[in-house]
Amino acid sequence: MKKKTPFLLVLVLLMICHNSNAQKKEVVIKIDTLSPQVFMLTGQGGNIGIYIGAEHIFMIDDQFARLSEKIKGAISGLSKKPITKLFNTHMHGDHSGGNANFNTNSVTLIAQDNVRKRIKANQQAKLEKQEVTLENMQKMLPEITFSNDITFHEGDETIMAFHVHNAHTDGDAMVYFMNNNVLHMGDTYFSGRYPYIDLKSGGSVDGYIAAHRKALLVINEDTKIIPGHGRPSTKKELESYVAMLEDIRTKIKQAIASGSSLDDVKGNDTLTKIYDANYGNGFINPERLRSIFYTSLKK
Ligand SMILES: [Zn+2]
Question: What 8-state DSSP symbol labels residue 1?
Fold first, then answer.
């Protein structure tokens, strides 16, 4: 008879392996200066935007809960002013996972209506499985929500947040710092790689492309763009990115019209081939991108 490895031993070994991997990959928070008052923080998960006003800090997204202390440390290195507003570009955990850790009495959480609904539903499921406490769940939720746009007046700066419909999810908002001329696009833009479009959370290819067209109306040649993932970007780069998405949309629509199945489109690398070397090396590989486009455009 073969000896079985006890379950508990396997579990402990897995945990040790996991921990040593985590230690090897120590997350470092890097800072890009985009304007005298706006900074981009990169760690693990979605890019964070920080605006340092005359008295307060306005923060966009907060990555995962486990990174909150490091993120707070990086922000206090920039300024000792208090954070008073925390804006979520959408509901995904790599952008909003730290909400509860930042949500003190002096911080207000803000997001589009659907972000609150979806975070609440996710947290409720976790509460039922006893993975979170009721207090933690409540602290995760945006406290002010809006349907289409909201504008903040912080000293000399006007901060415009506007909802884009059914793009990456059904609750995306972009945030534009008018005087500093910086736009945070959340996950409606993955610079340098194919986008993830979360069809199950209300995202769509047409909405994603429409969001880019809307952003292009707001910005100019000098605007600095903070993408949800990837390096800071320019209007020119966003223009070529959306042209790429539109071209792929046209090709996949033609394939659908000529009767191609999902498997045909997934297997047909000629549909994306000219872009794969530049954009296909990220989280979304070419086959996955074709699958997302097919599923969304077939609807
Ligand atoms: Zn996302």
Answer: -
- Residue ranges of E strands in the chain: 30-33, 38-42, 48-52, 57-60, 83-87, 108-112, 144-146, 149-154, 157-163, 173-177, 182-184, 224-226
For residue 154, report the distance from its CA to the centre of ligand 1, in Å. 27
CA of 187 to the centre of ligand 1 (A): 5
* Cβ atoms 46, 94 nearer than 8 A: yes
| pTM reported for the whole predicted model | 0.91
What local confidence, expressed as pLDDT, does residue 6 receive? 52
Cα 258 to ligand 1 centre (Å): 32
pLDDT band at 13; cut points 50, 70, 90: very low
Task: Please report, for the chain, the start and end positions of each structural domain, with discontinuous segments joined by +.
Answer: 28-298
Domain 28-298, CATH number (from 3.60.15.10, 3.40.50.300, 3.50.50.60, 3.40.190.170) = 3.60.15.10
pLDDT level of residue 155 (50, 70, 90 thresholds): confident
**Percentages of the chain per state (helix, strand, coil), in multiples of 5:** 45, 20, 35
